[in-house]
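Journal club side-thread
Mid-discussion, someone asked how the predicted structure for our own chain would compare to the paper's figures. Pasting it here so we can look after the session.
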Amino acid sequence: MSGDEDLGPWKSALMVASVGIELAVAIGIGYLVGDWLDEKLDTRPWLMYLFLTLGSAAGFKGFWRTARRYWPREDE
């Protein structure tokens, strides 16, 4: 683990558990922004789909970043 050896087990567990919250928030914000823009621009439901997809991608990027931090390395 690059630089995370000094973290206690509880702090590491909380960092990993926060991934679910980060994923849900990113998807929720994408949905809300897209829905709001659809209402303002009368493009329903296309911008909601677009921003929901972008929010999902951002959430999974955060998930992948955290997973790679705790992934066992082959060189160790």
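Post-session note: Residues 18 and 63 are 9 Å apart (CA to CA).
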